Amino acid sequence: AQKVTQAQTEISVVEKEDVTLDCVYETRDTTYYLFWYKQPPSGELVFLIRRNSFDEQNEISGRYSWNFQKSTSSFNFTITASQVVDSAVYFCALSEYGAGKSTFGDGTTLTVKP
Amino acid sequence: DGGITQSPKYLFRKEGQNVTLSCEQNLNHDAMYWYRQDPGQGLRLIYYSQIVNDFQKGDIAEGYSVSREKKESFPLTVTSAQKNPTAFYLCASSPRTGSTVNTEAFFGQGTRLTVV
Lengths: 114, 116
Prior knowledge:
The structure holds 2 protein chains of 2 kinds. Chain A is an all-beta fold. Helix content of chain A is 0%, strand content 54%.
């Protein structure tokens, strides 16, 4: 069975601070995919990034960066110089190879104060 | 514009009644999904469909039913057998499944169902 754990329920930071959201996953599959989604107050989940289990290269995209470490089963997400518009619930998700459907963590609510 | 449309945005149901949530996509995606979200919790999979006229139960299918008669439509019926139906329901789609690439899902804006 697959499991995704986001230990941080809520995080509050002041604008311009850096913040890291943690994600730890469990799976027996050797091939799998990991995702981060953002859920703003409007409710719709917005895709941020996808990584497959063979690609441990970390990525930076603007103010966002991701750290995938297979050895520790972690897929952490960092926002640099946070902004008020970053306030949202962030979900980490895991998908089996070829399955399409995903297992989601419980989410981390990020509040960025001006 | 391409996307996923869920309707209605808010829905109130009396106990003992069935209610159907609509989900339509014009992205030409093969796979569609229904998730349930409760406060402070992640998304839990109710049903999913990888192709027209075929669907599979997810982790919490009891008390729900679906149909997939058209590629673009995947309605969810919440039956009176669902003991605690008050929740936020999200529909999603993805381009393909069962292939070499697991692509991300595209989500609708959700339907908030309240039993009164």
